[in-house]
Amino acid sequence: MSSDPGEIIVRLDVMLALRKMKSRELAQRVGITEANISLLKSGNVRAVRFSTLAAICAALDCQPGDLLEFQASSND
């Protein structure tokens, strides 16, 4: 078994585009900084609070699975 289980792909940019919403508007609705939205979009975060994820889902009218995707490691 590989020690690399895979990775989580963040699809926040896709949902923003589908909802025709800017990062700035989402940040305001969720109550976090635009810089944090940018970090989330790029996947450069180690954790996301469930409360933040819930607020993002509410603002974008989506499910957590619409924002996050698991991609298995290719060397299995």
Automatic annotation (TrEMBL):
One of its GO terms (molecular function) is DNA binding. CDD domains: HTH_XRE. Residues 19-67 form the HTH cro/C1-type domain. InterPro entries: Cro/C1-type_HTH, Lambda_DNA-bd_dom_sf. Pfam families: HTH_26 (PF13443). This is HTH cro/C1-type domain-containing protein.
